[in-house]
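Subject: Sanity check before I submit

Could someone independently write out the structure tokens for this chain? I want to compare against mine line by line before I put it in a report. The sequence has 303 residues.
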Amino acid sequence: MQKKEMAGLMVIAAGCLWGVIGLFSRKLSAVGFDAVQITALRSLVTAVGLFLLLFCKDRKLCRIDWKDLWMFLGTGICSIAGFNIFYFVTISITTLSVAAILLYTAPFFVMVLSAVLFHEKFTAQKVKGLVFALAGCICTTGIFSGSIHVTALGILTGVASGFCYALYSIFGKFALKKYTSETVTLYTFLMASAAMLPLSHPADMFSLAVSDFSLTGGILLLGLVCTLLPFLLYTRGLSRMDSGKASVLAFAEPLTATLMGVVAFGEVPDGFGWLGVALLFGALVLLQMPQKQRKTGKIPNIL
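---
Independent answer below. Compare away.
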């Protein structure tokens, strides 16, 4: 298997792992954690877990040149912390479906910024994949099933969440020219933790987090399996492929989240929802299909 195909599979796997976050976040929300606290816990567990791993494996991976700190301020604060804050604000003043759609404007920003900064080609394949994926995301949000409430401020904060989400792929691309995916992920979440913890009422958050063993276990799984592992996979994949293509392949996340809703919570989509699933899957197949196979019409094995 070629490196680019393997990189694509890494990004898709990352999206799938992100897509099961709902299994844990719903339980945490039910016992009293708010969205900012959940994000802070995810970031902290990821940072601490990866630091311990790298400290035992190779301490050199924990070192950076402080002149490069701007890269990790970008991935950690501008991107991870920024998109979460804007996303939560958008949810509070619009609806979850509108917030999700505006968040997934991120690949558009990635493609434009990557073309300017990294001279990546704006190919027909990427554009088609983005159109398929964005249309699929719109269908799976359930926006067609009822009325929506949208304000100018909601659109502004929603687009801001998408822009901040896109910045991980941009700043991450700069960082990967000098550092490994492990180092990039470590300092990203150290910065994100530093930004999110002051906003999360830490005393109350930690008191609740250790109040029940199963709850603590769920937080650890959320941080290690649904955050640390997928970010390592995404960042490793990003180092081997175009940022724009990687950002669209990450649409495996809403696809997985929709299917997980069916399996775990009995949330069966309507006709538009299933159309969205098909469009999202089609986007992943299209973007994983090598040039020769696209010309001959052969479908690659992406699973």
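---
OP: Matches mine. For the report I'm noting this point. Residues 52 and 59 are 10 Å apart (CA to CA).
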